[in-house]
Amino acid sequence: MVTISDIAKKLGITPSTVSRALSGSPRVKNSTREAVERMAEQLGYERNEAASSLRRGKINAVGIVVPRINRAFFSNVIGGAESVLDEHGYSVIICQSHEKIEDEVKALKMLRSNRVAGVLISHAIPSENGNHILENIDPNAVLVQFDRVFSDLPGPRIVSENYKGAYEGTRHLIENGYRRIGNIAGYLSSEAYVQRLQGYKQALLDMGMEVDEEIIFYDSIVRETGYQAGKLAIERGCDAVYSAGDYSALGVIDAVREAGLRIPDEFGIVGTANEQFTGLMTPSLSSMAQHPYEMGRRAAQAFLTSLKPGAHVGEVSVPMELIIRESSSRNHIGIL
Amino acid sequence: MVTISDIAKKLGITPSTVSRALSGSPRVKNSTREAVERMAEQLGYERNEAASSLRRGKINAVGIVVPRINRAFFSNVIGGAESVLDEHGYSVIICQSHEKIEDEVKALKMLRSNRVAGVLISHAIPSENGNHILENIDPNAVLVQFDRVFSDLPGPRIVSENYKGAYEGTRHLIENGYRRIGNIAGYLSSEAYVQRLQGYKQALLDMGMEVDEEIIFYDSIVRETGYQAGKLAIERGCDAVYSAGDYSALGVIDAVREAGLRIPDEFGIVGTANEQFTGLMTPSLSSMAQHPYEMGRRAAQAFLTSLKPGAHVGEVSVPMELIIRESSSRNHIGIL
DNA sequence: TTGTATGCGTTATCAC
DNA sequence: GTGATAACGCATACAA
User: Fold this and answer.
1) Between 20 and 30 A from B14 (CA), which of A51, A70, A241, A277?
2) Average pLDDT rounded to a whole number, residues B251-273
3) Which range has the top average pLDDT, A101-110, A124-133, B186-195?
4) Residues A263, A308 within the same domain
């Protein structure tokens, strides 16, 4: 392996100058810089990151901590973050919390042990606050939270526009002529779901409709609970459902089919998250898309910005987008 | 940050001993080791990975290079690898090639610059051989290939049992009474697809049926080409199709529906890869599952084994598994 | 603009 | 079984 000393010797200068030339210091003659760069290229020099990290006390890497990497949402966030960080010379170290606080702590310790420059994290479900994060994160690392965030932790927070998304999804149903719209709200322990519920309610109110707790279902957002909620919604006279998740929306479709109602003519459905399957099923499922890749990019950008002295990034909103598919599109039959 | 010197001072011994104690050297008294461990715990010591890496000339990390991290297959492989590596104290650095040789080379250089202990890679589509990998990988790193592999490269190769999988998928259709089974074979530039085609053919032969090139379709395995192939297959008298991909199987379903045929009574379909949507659609799609998570685990294990002097790992096969769903299950009507 | 000197924290080699 | 010493490759404070 070739080092800066090798380059220095070949050129009859000292390692310090080579180091300066290579790291773009202004205190070096242009001709020297060029000579150094040429020689580095020629010898196939590559900086030893470990040595550099040791000397500087931190590594050109950021850790990303997510519950599970093999979930589409998170792997897309990582992909987005990687695309930005890569451009700026940062490696990405990934860690999974498996939705366990214990593993989250372990990951933070490992990242601290590596002196990473930043930590991008979306916390595990059981967390009730960010104390364990504060206690275990490298105090010199920049903390960026995304999607699942605690507002009492310092640093940037990148979140979806949940309120606005749910609002638009609900309004879309109303505008398509549906008149009694249920809601699958999810557990309200997460801020995101609280906001979605509020968006749903406000849309109803703004469009002159009433909020009826009878047809709001608080439960996990998996297919089975969606199915149960769907049955009740139909029983209670709904002709549409806005669901805070796609899997629960899928369950609603099961229930609607079972009841022999036609989608979208007799029953409309909008889900949330725009999971891949929503576009592949028949009928395809309308959904409020989150943009995880973009969220990852913004998280990475927030990290980079935070590195600059004096810079401060607060909460960053990532727009959601209504993807209209078959399950809610009866406007073509002119009902409105 | 507390260092081994801090521990040494507190204990009135030297850093060398602390280092030995912490790294589990046998040449240290038990009582000393325990004292060191207690003190390390108490002071909240964590090894500086950069210093350790510099001294040892390599880092406790492996790089994983995949075309895209946000593809279910690859993110699951990464998840599996991470689960094993994490247990052994290795970090995972992820890199995406975006299916470009250029980015692959860039990733390998970055990993070499970091002196990673191993590289787990699934190569980009345009690669025709492994030369650019050999030229750019850290010669001291263990190379492990998975899924998309070049047999002329050294080191372990982890692959799916493509031949056997396709064989079983095809046999399953035959056993369910389908009598003219088409095949969507995919591009044969990849070894995996060649093997799947062979499995399909051999299954037909073994079950006393003929191979008819008229109903074998060589093309990309996306939904649209699946649809086109499906139309031709129906035209040419098929009552079933085995597809080397799930998306193309989805296209076949489109074609079958358009032709007004009932699934699975009048037409059977088996796909490959067991993408998430296959279990969520109606009718659900039977598919030959790959086990990416397991593949990742085995790749990581192969890396760990290869570290041991003298050890040699060659090709490792990961079983595929037939997931029988609605699109091929007419055995209950007793046609066979 | 360049050179000199030093140290980052760890581990390996040698001596005792 | 432990200690002393050196070195990994780089980046910086200081001197020139």
Assistant:
1) A51
2) 95
3) A101-110
4) no
pTM: 0.87
In which element (H, E) is residue B301 found? Answer: helix B292-307
Tokens of A269: 């459905």
Residues A85 and A126 in one domain: yes
> Taking CB atoms and an 8 Å limit, are A93 and B92 in contact across chains?
yes
Q: How far apart are CA B115 and CA A284, in angstroms?
A: 48
Is residue A283 domain-shared with residue A168, that is, in the same domain?
yes
The mean pLDDT value for A152-177 works out to: 96
Please give the pLDDT value at position B310. 83
- The domain total for chain B is 3
Distance from CA of A210 to the nearest CA of B (A): 34
- Cα-Cα end-to-end distance for chain A: 72
* pLDDT value at B331 more than 70: no
Q: Do B114 and A91 touch (CB under 8 A)?
A: yes
pLDDT tens-place string over residues A83-117: 999 999 899 998 999 999 999 999 999 999 999 99
Measured to protein CB atoms, the chain D nucleotides within 7 Å are 1-13
**Interchain proximity A79–B69, CB inside 8 Å:** yes
pLDDT tens track for B48-103: 999 999 999 999 999 999 998 888 899 999 999 999 999 998 999 989 999 999 99
What is the per-residue pLDDT across A226-282, written as a single tens digit (0 to 9) for each? Answer: 999 999 999 999 999 999 999 999 999 999 999 999 999 999 999 999 988 898 888
Within 10 Å of residue B46's Cβ, how many Cβ atoms? 17
A202: closest CA of chain B, how far (Å): 32
**What's the CATH number where A268 sits?**
3.40.50.2300
Q: Which of B22, B104, B113, B285 to mutate to test the interface with A (most CBs of A within 10 A)?
A: B113
Per residue in B285-300, is it b (16+ CB within 10 Å) or e — as a string?
A: bbbbbbbbbbbbbbbb
Q: In what order do the strands lie in the sheet with B268-273?
A: B216-217, B181-184, B240-243, B268-273, B286-289, B321-323
Helix B30-43 vs helix B4-11: crossing angle, to nearest 10? 120
Q: Indicate if CB(B14) is under 7 A from strand C.
A: no
Please state whether strand D lies within 7 Å of residue A8 at its CB atom: no
- Is residue A188 located within the same domain as residue A284? yes
- Domain residues for the domain of B28 are 4-47
Does a structural domain hold residue A298? yes
